[in-house]
Amino acid sequence: MENSNKSGFSLQIPSRAASNQIYVEEWDRIVLGPKTSTRSFINVKESRKTAITVRVLQLLHKVLGSNIHITKRDLFYTDVKLFVDQSESDGVLDDLACMIGCTRSNLHVVASDKGLVVGRIQFTEDGDEIDCTKMGVGGKGKKLAPK
Question: Is the pLDDT of residue 90 over 70?
């Protein structure tokens, strides 16, 4: 975070563009180069994205302070009016992980589970009895698997 008298506070966000990605052979990894973009608190064009960035930072602070994990979808639903679309909160989350220099999972945010079923559903498929009334740990759904 920077403060200059002319532009107020701003955030320097590493560019995740393909043109700023560099392959480092000795690490066998692609890393981000030096290009950054500035997200200013005072610029009207950037005010919404900056507000989303600050809100996601606030939510991450709460999640990390509580030592819990949430999904990207949970993060989006904490402030639907601000985020409007999940791709906005997801993009800002990725920007912040790059800015801080860690992975999304280090911030205790995981991708949503897919292919899960929870509820009072029992059926037989190809001779296997599937019982969806059994809940996973912490109320999370279980992957469909034969009994």
Answer: yes
pTM above 0.70, yes or no: no
In whole angstroms, what is the distance from residue 94 CA to residue 104 CA?
Answer: 7
Is 77 labeled as catalytic in the residue annotation?
Answer: yes
Give residues with Cβ within 8 angstroms of 33, minimum separation 6.
Answer: 15, 20, 21, 22
Cβ-proximal residues to 129 (8 Å cutoff; 6+ apart), any chain: 122, 123, 146, 147
* Angle (CA) 96 94 84, round 5°: 100
* 105: its two tokens: 């999972």
Share of the chain above pLDDT 70, in %: 80
**Gap between the Cα atoms of 35 and 132, Å rounded:** 49
Of the candidates 38, 58, 66, 77, the residue annotated as catalytic is: 77
C-alpha–C-alpha distance, residues 16 and 35, integer Å? 9
